[in-house]
Amino acid sequence: MFSDPRPARRRRGRNNRAARIAVPVTGVMALGLTIGIVVSASGHGTPKLHSASANSANTGVSSTAVEDTCAIIVPAHPLTAKGLSTPYQLTGPAGESPAATGCQMINSVNLGAFVQATILNTQTGALYVYNPLVITAGTKPAVAPVVPKLPKHAIVTIDFGFNGTFLLQQGATPDALSEGDCADGTPGSPFGQVSFCNGINFFDAAFRMERAGRLTVPSAGISKDIVPTAGSLGTGRECPTTRNFDMIDQDPSDNVTTKYLFDPATGQTAQDNTANAARMKGARVLVNGSDNALIDDFLDPALGCTPFMAPDLGNHGVMATSQALDELLAAKNQPANAALVPENDEMVVGVGNSFDAAKTDLYRAEIGQAPVDGQTDASSSPQMFCQNMVNIQTPFIAANEKIFAAWPSPVPTMGDTLFTFMANRLASSFDNLNCATFGLHQTVAVVVNGAGAATEAILNTDPETAGF
Question: Does 126 fall in a domain?
């Protein structure tokens, strides 16, 4: 929607995820190393999950140029079945070609784009998921996308995720973005990795139906395994959601759970469904670095929890997760001390890195969160977000070290266990939110091996109070 991204800030560090310091569990998986280096976490972009997939395509980029900004071409009538099944196109910004910029799905680890739709039947309250396909502009799908059969009374929200820095929406037709009620930020100040179509209308309708008893969103469920911590979750307590400080990072509620199949021989992509997987033998799986994938694919299984799922209209009704489903679950089970998108989240800061309540409100509205006001500031002002993140997440990770140490790391190059990843993510989020400016102190230090992967984490669980 906006062709001129704001000047690159500290977010540029997100692209260099290999530079992030990971944090593993003390003494559990030392990988045979006899020497470690203790370091405190430094401020680079928080590692997301796309780096974790051994099947992700990360080689063979046909361009030597790699930008941090790409554009995605939104099809005409994006909220219809035809629009959803028309491939989105990844291309260079401001008219540049995919090859000249590296904005290609073959370069998915750095610049891959992902799209996810969640559908609500406003007559029955039924929910569905559909993952529109993204292709590199100028290519064709490896397999034509499934045309979803939408309910007659459907309202659709579309979420976008990106593995680079800025993904800017462009319409395939002059009216495509307005037809989809699409937004990628405010004038001159895009969100960055994420954008939306029709999220405000979707959540308004969903919440109205919930209040009327016409839509049922489940409870978060009871964890079988979470170890009790003061002020946090405990065994026999509710499972965490995307609005719990136990699991958030510097930019909560961002990116999607969509996956694509990629043919490295042709550079073509296809929807990730059972039929395509059987047809595309040897295809690689492309994934989006996502907070939602972290909770749905790692934390929930590790803690004995189950994510909120709905039938996938692109995969014969197989149950699937989505960002919007996670937000509906989080809203239904929102804790009193809720973790909402803070104004110091780098996706919502304004020009010049200033706090921008209007931009924050737009982002929050697209994912069903309440606007900035005195009530939400009690937990999610920049100061309180930092304080709660330190005081709630640090002891939560420490108390569940044994559980997380036994679970695979989302990003093995950052740490050898889920504990490693979570601790590193917390430490980096502290730096990237500039939490030290509020009188708070870094709570994580790590031991890393010669390759930069962490093998131990040292967590300080003493509570802290932010200065104002």
Answer: yes
